[in-house]
Specification:
It is built from eleven helices and eight strands. It has an eight-stranded mixed sheet, sandwiched between helices. Helix 10 links the parallel strand 7 and strand 8.
Length: 286
Amino acid sequence: MSPKQSAQENQAILLPDGRRLGYAEYGVPHGSPVLFFHGAPGSSYIHSDMADVAARLNVRLIAVDRPGYGASAPHSARSLLSWSDDVAALTDALALPRFAIIGFSGGTPYALACAYSLPERVTKVALAGSLAPLDAPGVTEGMSPMALGLYTLAQSNPIELRNTFAAVAPSPTALFEVMSASAGEWDKNLLLEKASEFETEYKRTLQQGIEGMAFDFVLSSGEWKLPLDGVNTEIHLWSGTIDQNTPTAMTHHMAALLPNSTVFILPNEGHFALYRHWQDILAKLV
């Protein structure tokens, strides 16, 4: 770690309603602020090589645990749009009037919610492996049967979805094994290459069990109640052509809806392409 680089994990604030919101800071304390919204599963733990890149680019990287993940208290009444209230409270507490956002996978709808609700504060947004509303025609083409099955179950039987996730609740190793076993070859190789980092990340994911992850699936598989054509912030969408979790059809659908968007297609790369192109993604935001 360079002399000016810092990492402050396991941080938290109290929100106006009394809930605890967990976050972690990496990179340069007085650098350009960028918030990171993790996937499902995921957490505010940032891999060490990614933290190094943030420091080199003079970025103050703030990764936030959504409710039910890490140190963030559950919130049974939460919605996609209510997340922007939590983010506004956090950035107020950190004295950040303006900031960029990276949303990965399950974190992408939340990034868009902030861009819509906080247009004067969110400067740019990068969406890597973007989800799209599942009722849009054709967006699930190329999605793996397992991924589609989980989103379908989230709408038809949320209790059974939670029972399914409960099998991995006791162990980040078990969660990692399920993720790698169900991944395509490209993604599996990347996951195995970074196995220790992902297990550390998933340990924080499961700090309070599986409720945060399950709630994410329920929210993102239902009606978003988010007017995407009203998001005028500059949006960068990054998509691997062999992504089986959030297929490229989702990215193209979102780009057609978002009026100020640019698409970056990554040939022959999968869902976890964020971890290969982190520097490129971050550099375009700052």
